[in-house]
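Write out this protein's structure.
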Amino acid sequence: MIHHLNRPSVPRSLLLASLSALLTLTLSSLASSSPHPPDPARGVPRSHRLIVELDAPPLARDPLAQSLLRRQRGTPMASPHVAGAGALLRQLHPDWSNVDIKSALMGTARFLDVFLDNAHTQLAQPLDMGAGALDLARAIDPGLLLDPPSLSFGQVDAGTNPAPIVVTVRNIASEAETFTLRALCTTGGPSHIADWDALAFSPPSLSLAPGESAVITASLSSASAAPGDLQGFLVLSGAVHHVHLPAWGAVAAPRTTDVLLLDFDLSSSEYFLPDYRSYYTSTLDELGLSYDVLDISGSEIPPAADLHAYRAVLLFTGDNGAAATSSLRESDASRLTEFANDGGLVLVMGQSAYATLSDSFFRDGVLGLYHVADSVTGGAQPSALVTPADSSPLPPDFALDLGPSADGAHNQSNMNHVAMAGWRDYVLFYPWTRWLAYSTGSELLAFVHRDQPILDRPGVSSFVRAFVASFGLEGVNNTPAYASRSNLLRRIWTWGFDEPRAALSAQIITGRTVRFTASLSNSPGSIAQTRWLFGDSTNIETSASASLDHSYAADGPYSIQVEVINDLGNHAVASLPFTLFQPYAAWADALGIPAAQRAYDDDPFSNGIPNLVAYATGIPPSSPDRPPLSIASSNGSPLLTIPWRTDIDTAAWFRVESSTNLLDPAWPTETNLAWQSLPLSSNRAEWIGLPNFYPLPPKKSFRLRVGIDD
């Protein structure tokens, strides 16, 4: 159909008129007459940017088609509509970039007649619909193109302001036009559209000739805003064209409390189930964690902006789901999803927690909880220990006693056999790790959920950190032979807030064999495993050591990567650009410099090529007798400065040679610290050859860095 409409025999004016009429009928007639229910999975974006950018309702030409489609919504329905719209714009405007097409679709979307209710009193906001409902008839001729086409200010603490956003505006119309700017707040409904004081912008108006560009600076103020989402639109109105940008920012309460304890054991409800709150509060007290308690059987979970005041949320279900069942409200599940997406630690514990969480994205996507069987003990009290599952990062001797003895609640007869939902649609965003299993049959009882950087993907796609257990903390006995309730909770807490960082160093051992060493910082954990890519097309190597030797076939530049996994199960990735230059090793071998005293670093004249830091024998690298060497510039020529001492009894041979001349510095004879600057050629300088090394007099030692300078 598209090809037919664009046949050369069809006049462009007729094509545009026909296409506009068709698209106005088929795309805009559906959503404007029906409510647009909010999606509970939407909320605080994982990336602190607007995820929803455009709303595309189902395309239906008649009541029968609408009935067959059953008014289904979501990405599977929206994607083909937006893709088709983009294809049409590409054919009509082959010179437009992808960013231009996106701007045209978003800037011309309908945003003042998309509602969340049948009464048409609640207008959809940017978090609900992005820029609005697709209106391809207007997207054909937007007049202006915007880059970026939306304003995502991210999340800030109350009283602080995010960085301003600069938007480039380009007039693509054939006539000059003047545009007036206005910030709109539509949260009051269609009869209360008002100026949005929180969004400032400059200039207040733009006059653009055809093809001319200008910039707009927009800034968001949270000075007088309560915690929550700030949403609205920046509108550019001209005599002919009108475009807009959705704007969003979140004001968050500062994190002041460690834990919000969500009591969902139904002890205060009409079911009068046992009250297990004290097991949790006493454990939090033992760990020294601050907390608030909320009984959610009768109260709603606070909005995400208020939840931001807590570092973690711990929801426990007690006997809920076993003796009686009350499911989590959809609104509560949505708010917990927002909290998790914002990077808060989520803990869910309870023997039948799966039944209490309802069918929600929070259960299936954020937690990744899947039910296998009702009880791993057949309805009896546990007779075996709970121990580390296969591939668990927990130490092998870690064990929990949940049996009918000691000081536990003795209520764990319905511990669900659960599975991690890694096989579901959410696997691309949420990796899982097995933690604890019932020792008699290895049925999984607990796992953690956290996106980890790996060699193939050094970044993360999600901020979610969750721990799920199909047993309650109240069931754990505090017995000396096994891990206590506080032991378990402390390990979860440490894992959840561990932020490891990795670093990488290299030492040439001999010839082209290099020893790479990974280090870990910012973590209470230690290195348990390393995975290596050496940049020379060899396969990934895995080691239990922090160091690994690798032999290269040839000199050259390489990019080395290491993935470090600590004993908490968390990952960090580091990389090192490294150039193997054989004379470095030969020179160091000739000087007799031990391998442990060889290292590589960078200098500002080597364009990222590593340089050998060589030490004379007998002086530790941390000794004050090794002042740092420097490379500076003098009248545009690089200078190599060598600190050395004359009171150390050692001798060494060295040679420095450039591409044009041999540098033979005169060494001073003072008895204390002295400095010698060696002017290097502006051409390429290298260490070459071993013959004819120049001797240093006795009682000399030095620290020398050799660079490759361009």
